[in-house]
Design brief:
Blueprint lengths: L15 E4 L2 E4 L2 E2 H8 L3 E5 H13 L4 E5 L6 H10 L2 E4 L2 H9 L7 E3 L6 H10 L3 E4 L2 H14 L3 E8 L21 E2 L4 H11 L3 E7 L10 H17 L3 E3 L17 H14 L7 E4 L3 H4 L3 E13 L3 E6 L8 H5 L17 E6 L8 E8 L8 E5 L20 E5 L2 E6 L13
Parallel strand pairs: 4-19, 5-6, 5-13, 6-7, 7-8, 8-9, 9-10, 9-11, 11-12, 12-13, 15-16
Antiparallel strand pairs: 1-2, 2-3, 4-14, 14-15, 14-18, 16-17, 19-20
The structure holds ligand LLP.
Length: 426
Amino acid sequence: MGATTPISPTLLSRGVSIREGRAYLHGIAVADLAEEFGTPLFLYDAAHIRAEVTAAKEAAGWQVAYASKAFLCRELARIMDELGVHMDVASGGELHVALSAGFDPGRIVLHGNNKSVAEIEYGVAKGVGLFVVDSVAEIGRLERAAEAAGRRQPVLVRVTPGVEAHTHEYVMTGQEDSKFGFSLASGAAEAALGMVKASPWLEFAGIHAHIGSQIFLLDSYAKEVDALAAMVKAHSPRVLNLGGGLGVAYVSGEESPGFDAWAVQLYAALEHNGIGPDVQIMVEPGRSLVAQAAMTVYRVGTVKRLEGLRTYVSVDGGMSDNPRPVLYGSGYEAFLPEAADAERDQVVTVVGKHCESGDVLIRDALLPSSLEEGDLLATPVTGAYGYSMASNYNRVPRPPVIFVDESGARVVVRGESFEDLVRLEV
Ligand code: LLP
């Protein structure tokens, strides 16, 4: 099982410090936050988010559109708006949350392989900056909505470039056999582009592609640019949106390539293909902007030691607040916020409280052997696709979301109560 070292600081957000074994977030003990807000708890380092977004923005002359599916609430949308980035929304619901936070509609990029007519009309009426059209049927629907609103709608045409990024099958999106977009190889993309250009109610703004998520091998992006180059040169788009997908480290040994290296790779490929500064490059990172900003804090309940087999450490959450281990087999690490610098000298299995054996958060977690019932246990790097994919399975209320920065801690999404679990019932 390798080293038994304490949790690596590289997995923690920038505002975390460890003093005499206790973990602090911007000077507030994680244990005090757990005491005040209860567990489980999503603890976001808001300053970390600001720093990551700023780093992404400054990495190149590109525009950054935050992929809000990774995590969205109004406070986050306000931060993104303040930082001046664009926002990718992939449903009427995401659009609504962003707009209700006052996010500038002109900087919204609206996605979806199956936008309903109502979602299309909502987006057009609100003045969404860019629609990413995904199918022939949608082009017709959007054209009718734009005409009815008397507004010419700027669009990006979503192209599947036929590039397979090395990632989990469920999050691979750039290959030909996909529910998303228009295939480049078959000529469908070219035909869609022609339809958009011919429409009096649609404005051809550019081309979009996204090759997948949790990508560590940056040459996948160079292949994406190579694949799109001929189309870009033939159609002179105003915007070329190359999607998101930059990988992040969840466990020690992994390392995110980072925004700068991503930019270097992309711009080298653009230059190599003769695509110059007249085309505005846009990228759409979600995970890499928010994943590392948060940790989930749980309380340990039952510890079950099966001699010679394994030790089950049960926490007060599980697959309802983090379905990623179950869905994708994703790995996480854990540490004890009150013994954050302790050697993690035992291997245990961290499980949730849901009624199925598959409710495993970490199969082989390193944790200190001092661990006992009642301890706090934290899993870092849960800021992306955690809360946003949380459910009420087993009618477990969703945890609160707390933002912490230099000015203190505040609840941005309150935790659900049992009453909330029946509030939709009529
Ligand atoms: N743009 C488009 C069109 C996308 O479909 C996605 C992610 C992104 C941008 C942002 O990708 P990111 O930078 O966050 O990797 N639930 C899965 C991830 C699904 C990603 C879906 N699309 C997970 O938990 O790993």
